[in-house]
Amino acid sequence: MGIFGYLIGSWAVLLVAHKALKKPVEGIAKVDPTAETIAHTMYDGVDYTPQNKYVLFGHHWMSIAGTTAIFASITGLIWGWLPSLIWMLVGVHFAGATTDYFAGMYAVKNQGKSMGELASEKIHERTGTLLTVLYFLAGLMVTSMFIEVMADTVVGVPEAGLPILLLIPVAMLFGVTIKKGFPLGPTTAVFVILLLIVVGIGANFPLNLSVNAWMAVFIFYTLGAITIPVWVLLSPRDYLNTVLVIGGLILGASAMLIFRPEVQLPMYTSFFTERGPLWPMIMATITCGAASGVHQLIAFGTTARQLEKEKDGYFVMFGGMQGETFMAVVSAAMIMTFFSYDGFMESAYPDPGGAFSNALANALELYGLDPVWGGTIGALTFGALLLTTLDSWARNGRYLLQELTWNYFGKSRIITSIVFMIIAVIVLFYTPVMDLWSGIALGSITLLTVPLSLLIIDRLESGEVFDRNFKIFVVAPLIVIYPSALAAVIYELYRFVVEQNWLSFVLMVFMAYVIVSMAYYSISKILRLLKERKAEI
Prior knowledge:
Number of domains: 1
Organism: Natranaerobius thermophilus (strain ATCC BAA-1301 / DSM 18059 / JW/NM-WN-LF)
Mean pLDDT: 86
Number of strands: 2
Pfam families: CstA
Helix content: over 70%
Number of helices: 23
Oligomer: single chain
Strand order of the largest sheet: 1-2
InterPro entries: CstA, CstA_N
Subcellular location: Cell membrane
CATH architecture: Up-down Bundle
Membrane topology: Multi-pass membrane protein
């Protein structure tokens, strides 16, 4: 298959699936077009506030995607481009987009409660607490890791620093304009032009700051971003960043479609690779871009609290996850065409972020664009993703800290924001955050089971039958995910022992405990309900 067929075929699958799966997936979630969402019933103008579905789509897509979709799709090419493509297209439609959507709709229909709170009520209190801690750790690790990666990015390409900072006031002005009722279409057109002007001007004034100086900038930025109302900066900035990211990806993808560079990476390499065996490790490697349970942190957090109508949920959350797969496919395609396998193992595999920026610059060179500008556009696209993910995950981490410390200082948004950022800074400077992230990323497989288990329990308690759609999108994925998650954790435990990476080993033991606990209490509850149903019959 050439690169043209790879891209067009993948996009066709995403478009057809989006239309074909809407009715069965919404049926499982029991969407009520007339119901008031928590954005209205719990409105506070800060966290709970109804948002235009297109703006919210941009927020959700950019928040879940970040750079991990790029990292994951590139790293997954170690098994060859065919296994990674199959898992991305199958995983997103039967595990990733569905669980994102189910988790978000669960929160919408249950007073904005997190998956941890709902698991405490419906499965077991211990399981719920463990899950809340795991979700919190995910938000914390993403915040710490992305502050570091963001600083490294702008140090490496100083021309990207000022444009990234200037995006902040532009986004705030856009947020205020939309809040005052100006029409979205014309306003978007005006601000996209302003965005391009700002990027063009800013790129001519490189900021040569140290890594620590940039870290300080992003630490204080994040603290402010997670404290102020969500409509002021978070959602409008994510929406505008969508334009920047889509623009960069479309430029790269169109260059490949027009000039059709040859695919250099093999279709399939080996079942056993440096990353581990194809199963289950491809599921643990390509999480973002296929199926990642940590996305639920965004779905039941900021997204659910801004959903204006239940019927918007499918477009926003299911579609947002498909958007991440679109991004992952394009990222993988650029690497496939600009790196040989030896080159991939030498540079792209150990540094997927740098490889993405270089590959995008190479793609833009096909148009005759100067390599310096190509590199700047690549870094801007990369940086926009980082900044979007950074404050969204930090804000949702703050929500979970409020949940965990409600009886102490959880009611105070400002105090919990400060405490969250202090913990994030400690993790950033005093722990091997990049090593620890591999454990949290692996835990994302486990989290896929949470909304699926809750759906099964709800259906058993209500006495409803398991129809064909429910079996396909809920029961079957759960049966596949549980053993895959446990197998991946066992493999990683072995690897960390061999590498003597004891801190990551301890985190992985916690992951194993969460998986076993979740499985034990969920299956026990399901079996008890099945027994009760049988007795009633």
